[in-house]
Design goal:
The chain has 209 residues and is an all-alpha fold. 72% of the residues lie in helices and 0% in strands. The chain has 13 helices and no strands. The longest helix is centred in the first third of the chain and has 14 residues. The model has no long low-confidence stretch (mean pLDDT 92).
């Protein structure tokens, strides 16, 4: 991309790609410079606003990140990836109602997008709204209901609602076909490590061959 900038007429997209490269390398100042170069050429180039938002989030400047993601969404309101970014930052700063609206709108755009279901449920779970999270997860397309993250998110809400039998029945039904499910659950719900029933299932879980 650097050669393209030197050889060709600079374009906002090229600067943004360079910014993304710098960002992945951890060179956040250089990334920011490239994103601003992109916006000097095209102030409405949404991906450059997203890039600035990602850098701001990495720096824990959540107010700036939110502003950048909102700008990108305003420019491309049907971009589901932007919905995910905006919903994520809203959740991180505790604006769960606002995040829920963003995920709901995104699901209207892409009703079969599994990541949207999972993130929408995670947002509600972070706000301890477990019945609502289960309602979201019940809407997952049938073909995707065996996804480990769907199972783990469902387990989390069932468990937190005191429905232990239902939670562990769900886990048991999936363990044979998904041997690493306990590992996924532990990363989703670290507190479960202290539960003796969970520990027993870790011991008895089928091993990957």
């Amino acid at each position: 991309y650097r050669e393209s900038i030197l050889m060709d007429a600079p374009q906002a997209n090229t600067y943004t790609l360079m910014g993304e490269c710098m960002e992945r390398m951890g060179k956040l100042n250089e990334a920011t410079d490239y994103y601003y170069c992109a916006l000097e050429l095209d102030g409405d180039f949404a991906d450059a606003h997203v890039g600035l938002g990602v850098v701001a989030e990495m720096r824990e400047d959540y107010a700036a990140s939110l502003k950048c993601f909102e700008k990108a969404m305003a420019l491309e309101p049907e971009n589901v990836e932007y919905h995910l970014l905006l919903g994520g930052i809203l959740r991180k700063i505790g604006m769960h109602d606002e995040a829920a609206l963003i995920y709901a709108n995104a699901l209207r755009l892409e009703p079969d997008n599994l990541e949207l279901f999972i993130e929408a449920a995670a947002n509600l779970q972070a706000d301890e709204r477990h019945e609502e999270a289960l309602d979201i997860l019940h809407g997952v397309p049938e073909v995707s209901r065996v996804d480990p993250l769907v199972i783990c998110r469902s387990f989390l809400s069932l468990y937190c609602l005191g429905r232990r039998q239902a939670a562990f029945s769900l886990l048991d039904a999936a363990l044979d076909s998904t041997p690493d499910l306990c590992t996924v659950l532990l990363s989703t719900f670290p507190a479960i490590e202290q539960d003796p029933d969970f520990a027993l299932r870790v011991l008895n879980a089928p091993k990957n061959q």
